[in-house]
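Note to self: keep these together.
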Amino acid sequence: MRNNPFSLNFGKEPGRLISRYSQIDEITEVFRSDTPSSNVYIITGVRGSGKTVTMALLMNNFRGRKDWITISLNPNSNLLQGLAANLYACPGMKTAFAKAKIGLSFGVNAEIYTEEPAAALEVRIKKMMDIIKKKKKKVLIAVDEASNSENMRAFAGAFQMFLYEGYPVFMIMTGLYDNVRRLQDNKTLTFLYRAPRFELKPLGINAMANDYREVFLISEEEALEMARFTKGYSYAFQVAGYLKYKSRQSLEKLIPEFDAVMEEYAYEKIWSELSERDREVIELLAKNGKMKVQDIIRETGMTSGSFSTYRRRLSRGGLISVEEYGYCEICLPRFGEIVRAWT
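Structure:
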């Protein structure tokens, strides 16, 4: 039997995926232009919406091109040291750095030695950037799951300086809506506040249905039923496909195992990151289904102003839909049923 083309692993590019061509093409075109309108893009969405895979596909559009250096950094490490080490290790650049008497020691402090010792790591990186710029190369940095951490703020501040001084640096960041918003709200990081932000929306139902039909050789009706069941949630598309491929059972028979996987791999984590008030709203929607905004306000005792804050956060976080004016409803598949079981 062939390997399952669907995957339960977060961040790993599966064998079958629905690519977000419009966003990927737009960012690629902007970065490659002679006068890019932005050097930074931020991709947000609920866990499992495909942020990491989308970023990986974007990076693939630049990786291997002679005029681009692509670097992926771990947000939980010292990002500036990581940038310095990755730049130094780039094929074809180490010789140029050596000629300029720039050396990198991979010791505990990863110190860089230059003709004139620099006081800060940012200045040391600039010496490498000078050479990169002279060689007419560009640097694209990817940071997955960024948050408002001290590490990230320090790196973002240095990146802002690189931009202001005309270095050819670009960055793609992914993160949960709240985490990115807190980082962007930092008053000293004005470039992040202005950076375009893509909120990953649900995948297209027809695109998913076509994929299911191709893999399982099922009828259009059955494929559409599976696609609609996922509500366009990228991870649910993978889970439903994975379980179907493994057992070939009907969708109805897959639901118990689907719930178990979604609860363990996605929904428990999503729930743990919600505030008490967020949970109160979700519990109401889980219990009642689609609700009028005025009914939610009455049930929770919130004011109209305070509820609008939670509604906006839950909507941009990918947990509820507010597409129908005056109404809210949960937009993740089986999340309401699972929340009801918890509460």
